[in-house]
Amino acid sequence: MNDAIKDSVLACSGLSMVYQEGEMRTPVFDDLSLTVKRGETVAIVGASGAGKSTLLHLLGGLDTPTAGDVFVDGQKMSSLGDTARGELRNRALGFIYQFHHLLPEFTALENVMLPVMLSGKDVKEASARATELLEAVGLGHRLSHKPGELSGGERQRAAVARAMANRPACILGDEPTGNLDERTAATVFELMLKLNKEQGTSLVMVTHDRRLAARLDRVVELVEGKLQPVALKAE
């Protein structure tokens, strides 16, 4: 392991992914490398079907690559058992999807408490952390509301709070504003940047919106199975 990977919050080396169905092989990408520094924000852009979400799932340890390695907080994911891998994911990574994936039967407070409790904290500590985050995202008055009682923007803000619950080293966002209207998307994006600055959490975001991507520290594009740097000018 080189020093860049050892000091990174998230990295991959020689990453390849091939889907196999019978004798048909469908390569998605081959020999990808990416390193994300602490506090850095990175956008992954590319055409629909290029494999952006697949890459994000591999970086988050939600899927297993055909070849290559993923490192989270300096630890090689493939060297860990299922339990240890799940614990590392819960501690070091936060996930925000295009759709909020909040549990409908739980309140906003309970949804944000859940990852804190899964990390071993008691109810009192989990409640305090969840309340702090929900207040930070402007939902302090909606703690007892269930997802069905929240607007789309409020649900996504609650999802951002949940992703930050365990003070992760890195947030992985898969089109986190893609299901919102332009104004609400801008609000949620600003919130993500604000929390990135305040808490020093890295952000890796897959997005089709190049205007948002241009505001991150670095942009890479997935083209024909390869990652290449892109220079975008922020508006």
Describe this structure in words.
With 235 residues, the chain is α/β, with parallel strands linked by helices. The protein has eight helices and ten strands. The protein has helices at 3-6, 52-59, 82-92, 108-118, 123-136, 152-163, 182-199, 210-213, and strands at residues 10-21, 24-36, 41-45, 67-72, 75-76, 93-96, 170-174, 202-206, 218-223, 226-230. Helix 7 (182-199) links the parallel strand 7 and strand 8 (202-206).
Quickly list its features:
Rossmann fold; 35% helix; alpha/beta; four-stranded antiparallel β-sheet; 235 residues; six-stranded mixed β-sheet; 27% strand; 8 helices; globular
The major pleated sheet works out as: 6 strands, mixed
| Residues in helix, % | 25-40%
Architecture, according to CATH?
3-Layer(aba) Sandwich
Structural class: alpha/beta
Number of helices: 8
CATH class: Alpha Beta
Q: Round the mean pLDDT to the nearest integer and report it.
A: 87
As a percent range, the share of strand residues is 25-35%
Domain module count: 1
Radius of gyration: 18 Å
**Unreliable segments of 5+ consecutive residues:** none
CATH superfamily placement = P-loop containing nucleotide triphosphate hydrolases
DSSP summary, beta strand count: 10
Overall shape: globular
Biggest sheet strand order reads 6-7-8-3-9-10
CATH topology: Rossmann fold
| Terminal CA distance | 38 Å
| Element-by-element helix/strand order | HEEEHEEHEHHHEHEHEE
